[in-house]
């Protein structure tokens, strides 16, 4: 059920955006990197983290913008330091300590992230940071951490209004800023209380839903909400295209330095086919999600590598306009599932459109430029457009093949 | 998809209403004027504002009741005055300062409005008023401002219960009252937490939904709620007839000095046809929304001018009874869309009824006076009524042509 | 669309209930009386109130249990006493003052109620009691008031969680108790924040929905919620059978001294026919709503009088078990509307069942005693039952005619 | 409408879980025992409680794990001790006092539980513990109580956000911990404000819904919510399979020492047939609910005894992995009702699957192992599995008969 994607290059200027977000100057474009969770879960160690960092470099991923190595849950010792209350790493799994790992990551030219939780315990049952924000932020800075993913388990009921959630997360945001070290703050409260509304001034990104599942569209009861705007139980096991559905209404709340996080990608994990992972990567890019890889970097297929290194698609994500694509329509298909038209604005007079087919059959659709350029108005709707397919290479081997000029509409056939 | 509208003039007395609203004596009838946002967005300047004011006068719009010139977002300097914390205008775009612009507006016999936001930043990313209510209100009064539109972006999570929202907006309401200058307070929190319930004592009007889009009825995912009474994400890009749907249940919360604001009108902006704009203007009038123009006043068509100067329709809005029309029924049409019957009570024994057709085809409907006068009871249902069509002119060239007398029911054909 | 009602008299004992409600010893059974609002609205005066009281006596309604004369909104002077802050009546409309009216009501052997609002203004725009609870309660006690209806308009955003609403209403409850005079406290917040959960310890009754409309089943957009358990905008103009739907899930929260209030009755007001008013009165009785009349007592038809004086039906309401009837099933009818089976437990081994038909056609239904006695179990389901029709008179002219004995099921035909 | 249940024994290792719950070391597996409420309601006494305890022993139920005897509501005297404020038992019904009953229970080798309410009154109208948490916990410890069920009636509006509910229940949790006596804390707020989110650190279990009704699937209006994740009125009379529906999305919030409580079981109460009770018991086990019996222990049928002593099914509940089963799919059936596939992970490389049929007819379904092992991935989906039917006995008379080996899928016929 893959989409066909097209670029449209033409005359149009976009306005400038100014950063009004958390005051750390980070994530002016969505952050890119790798995280331990999707592949390794709680079974992490110093070797796993450092080996992944080395593989990131060895695969030349840094040249595509991937720079953060993120160590998720379960790095912790059984308890905090009994004297100081400071966090400690598991001494067996991390013999060099977190600072030692950070040094090795930094020596590779990469940045290093850590994980904690705005609650009594982390989701994996380790000590949380609720009530320990200052000493934790201070310790992270001493360890030369560059990034904090901050989760929501065991939060002692401190949710229910945007104010309650804001206050809980602002405590850590302020503590991080107070360290003087720029630490990217990745808020992860699964969309509770609407972080797209309350978080832009205190975080560089915020998760919008329950955790992703490595599936194109399977419904799973553990991800029960039908929308994120009034979801009181985010759950987990959310299929990839369900997260796209979740994102649709809130995308426009993103801005430079403050992004909607659609969760770590599943590309290369095995639960979807090649075309589905192409769709996954394209939409995460177009919708301005952080691009965080989740597969085993030390054991990647060439197919996987080809997807995550499509620099034309990455450019959609890192485009300086910082403008997420919008869903222009979503239409049920009689075969089941639906078709969707998405469009996004880019700098330098370019736009991107994408069609998504979640039905079980191939679909042919006539894309009316009235819909594609509804936001831009008549002049754009009537122009002729040169189309570039971002998933084909041109004669010089660069992603983005010119496939002709279209006016008024274009006919597209989308596989399954 | 335009409606046909009819007036019914006959015998009936309405009770008196008393003002119980924000204590500034303003907006006894819904405010009328013009706002920069819909046409100019963030690209405003002193010249744009003053030229619009001159055009308002030159087009004789003042004689129809339009009196406020409203300068929306992006008038701001990069920062507040570092010494006093007072707000400052962009010195390049507003060389005479806001006070200078106000003087020019006042010299034209008009009133002048400004914009700010009950948050850390405005929606356009300028400095907001949260925590600066007193100095901002004081400065506005010194600048001789007559009107404040007060927005909701970047509000630091201060929403989620009516109490939290009330407190945040009451801070500015009290600050405005404390200046001693009557400043119309136009609350704009997009309907969050039910301003129709909490705002009548602290504001002269309140927005009920996400921002309007210049479209008759297109569904747009960025305006995701299906109702405003439990909407937690108002969004924007709300089509004109969707806002009418949104307004239907809450209309009766309006009263003299305290109005539901259906947003700046799109009449003359180009996204709807003549009949659709006639519908737009008629419903904004009947439903007692503030009548705030949004097109480029310096470049209006005669068609546009003819709509916004229909004094018989404006009289519906400014009628002394202050009673918004009610939707008596809404019926799905097999062609798609629906038909709606609206009725409103006016002073001097008159009523207004209107039919709205959102289906793609012409519809003929028999309006039963049992429905039209359900609220008034049997005597009114059985009376004979003289009908006056407000969008035709009589023999003397005045809007409102007598089109006959009807009893029990009347048959109406409504175009598309 | 009237129901047919049947009594079943047989062997069964019910447990005792104990009062755990507001600590004033009142409303051990639902209160009965008359209120000015439905017929007179804001147009009340001393004469209207006293004349109604006299008519209540003259029509012998006191012998059926009607004892409260309730003066609703708009008795107020323009302002409180400027020196003491105490409430004052309109001196023109109430020349003898409220105390004078109370004396006249008491002299007739009746009890007297007043109205105020837990907000800045009453719904009719008079001064409210928010922040004046103590002086108001004290003044009411000095006036020898016996009953307070306490409304919810202009509440300054003080709603949104049960805690916020509880605190606001508890202020008046405590103030009333502190006077030492037993004053029945009739909470009227239209069901916001679930008074069936938070109010039983602070009030004798609580409204569950927006105001009633004198219609059997007309849908009105001004009463927009589909359920009261998560309604954030109660509105008004709620048809009679919609209020029955609203009540169904929350009925069991009632107990002695603490009742669900389905609003003032519309019986005799003219918007429904005889059978519909019979249904209205029967359900208000069975569902243990306060029985508050709302028509013009000085100008009642014999039909109206015959409904409100059916002592067998009133006995359902005042039954010592204090147990509201339950809806055992609700089934859509292909003609539109639905059929409903209700059953209630009474003292002395008796039960009541009622069928409600909201479809436009006569319906015949076989009532299975498995359903009627689902709560009581197999023994009751299999017993034979003597049926008594409460809307027919027996040979001695008493309401309740024996119509035979049934076992297992009974066939009923219900008119429209 | 009974399910057929199958065990699959094969190669698979599960990770270890660590306890992160209320700090009392209890309920590492779900608690098992008996409660007075479902059979005796408010009509309890010392004899009833002690006789039940003796019957528990006499029926050898202790060897299956049942160890708690739980005395629910209505053990109370009319009032607290007027001097000390301490709780007191009804001296007539409990002549030996609660401590005396506890001694007798303990002498039988059992543990003893009591009931109170986080409100002004208990649901049965006795004195509640709100504001009396410390003296009540202290008294319970003095009485040598081992378990507290803590209800939610008359809570003075102290709900509406997770924070408000957490604080109210944490008061008792902290008071119990402060006694030094390990007392299992069974939170019963009917799922309000999401205890699966806020309660794991303060309680050993939490109810998720309104009270159970002794029915397989009858819809009852008194249990009105369609989901527990946004239910504001839990009600009661919830049919058994509706509670299974309610549990589905929140099951994964359970962990060792902190369980979702699906309510006291109705097995043996008479409202369902044998197969339905088998389903009931199996699902309560698989879903890791506390297994609390509710029938009259002194008068049990052999059928009932055979259900509650199926040690293979109990082992699902007490399995050391502590992992609730998940619903893999739920499919509507054209005959009405639906079919459901459930799967759970156990220790020692075993899994459990169960099919549930709520339709009125026998259904045959092909279970695809892709679905059954979706969470485990391809290797498990393709393995061959040895199946053991937990409701048949093997040749040695032990529950769990080997019924063959299956690969890829298996066909199952499920009765009604």
Task: Describe this structure as you would to a colleague.
The structure is a homotetramer of 416-residue chains. Chain A is of the alpha/beta class. Chain A folds into two domains: 5-16 and 325-414, Sandwich (Immunoglobulin-like), CATH 2.60.40; 32-318, TIM Barrel (Alpha-Beta Barrel). Helices cover 25% and strands 22% of the residues of chain A. Chain A is built from twelve helices and 16 strands. An eight-stranded parallel beta sheet of chain A has the order 8-7-6-5-4-3-2-9. A six-stranded antiparallel beta sheet of chain A has the order 10-11-12-1-14-15. A two-stranded antiparallel ribbon of chain A has the order 13-16. In chain A, strand 11 (338-346) and strand 12 (350-357) form a beta hairpin. In chain A, helix 4 packs parallel to helix 5. Mean pLDDT of chain A is 92; it is low at 1-19. Chain A binds chain B through residues 15, 17-18, 20, 160-167, 170, 193-194, 196-198, 200-201, 227, 229-230, 248-250, 252, 255, 326-327, 330, 374, 377-378, and chain B through 42, 120-121, 125, 154-161, 164, 218, 221-222, 224-225, 230, 232-233, 235-236, 270.
């Amino acid at each position: 059920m893959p989409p066909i994607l097209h670029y449209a290059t033409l005359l149009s200027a976009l306005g400038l955006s100014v950063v009004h977000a958390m005051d750390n100057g980070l994530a002016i474009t969505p952050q890119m990197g790798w995280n331990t969770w999707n592949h390794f879960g709680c079974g992490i160690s110093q070797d796993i983290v450092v080996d992944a960092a080395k593989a990131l470099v060895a695969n030349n991923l840094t040249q595509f913008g991937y720079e953060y190595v993120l160590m998720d849950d379960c790095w912790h010792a059984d308890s905090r330091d009994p004297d100081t209350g400071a966090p400690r790493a598991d001494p067996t799994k991390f013999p060099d300590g977190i600072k030692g790992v950070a040094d090795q990551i930094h020596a590779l030219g990469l940045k290093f992230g850590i994980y904690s939780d705005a609650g009594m315990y982390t989701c994996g049952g380790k000590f949380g940071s609720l009530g320990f924000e200052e000493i934790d932020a201070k310790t992270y800075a001493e360890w030369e951490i560059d990034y904090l993913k901050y989760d929501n388990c065991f939060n002692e009921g401190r949710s229910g209004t945007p104010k309650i959630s804001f206050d809980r997360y602002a405590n850590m945001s302020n503590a991080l800023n107070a360290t003087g070290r720029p630490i990217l703050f990745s808020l992860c409260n699964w969309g509770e209380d609407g972080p797209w509304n309350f978080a832009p001034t205190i975080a560089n990104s915020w998760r919008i839903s329950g955790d992703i599942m490595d599936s194109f569209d399977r419904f799973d009861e553990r991800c029960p909400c039908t929308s994120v705007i009034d979801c009181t139980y985010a759950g987990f096991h959310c299929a990839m295209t369900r997260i796209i559905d979740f994102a649709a209404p809130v995308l426009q709340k993103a801005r430079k330095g403050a992004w909607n996080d659609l969760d770590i990608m599943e590309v290369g994990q095995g639960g979807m086919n090649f075309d589905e992972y192409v769709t996954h990567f394209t939409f995460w890019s177009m919708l301005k999600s952080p691009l965080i890889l989740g597969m085993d970097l030390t054991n990647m297929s060439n197919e996987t590598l080809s997807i995550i290194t499509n620099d034309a698609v990455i450019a959609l994500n890192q485009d300086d306009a910082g403008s997420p694509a919008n869903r222009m329509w979503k239409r049920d298909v009689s075969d089941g599932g639906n078709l969707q038209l998405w469009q996004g604005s880019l700098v330098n007079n370019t736009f991107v459109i994408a069609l998504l087919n979640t039905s079980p059959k191939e679909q042919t659709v006539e894309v009316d430029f009235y819909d594609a350029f509804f936001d831009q108005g008549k002049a754009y709707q009537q122009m002729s457009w040169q189309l570039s397919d971002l998933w084909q290479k041109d004669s010089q081997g660069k992603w983005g093949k010119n496939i002709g000029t279209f006016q008024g509409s274009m006919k597209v056939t989308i596989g399954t």
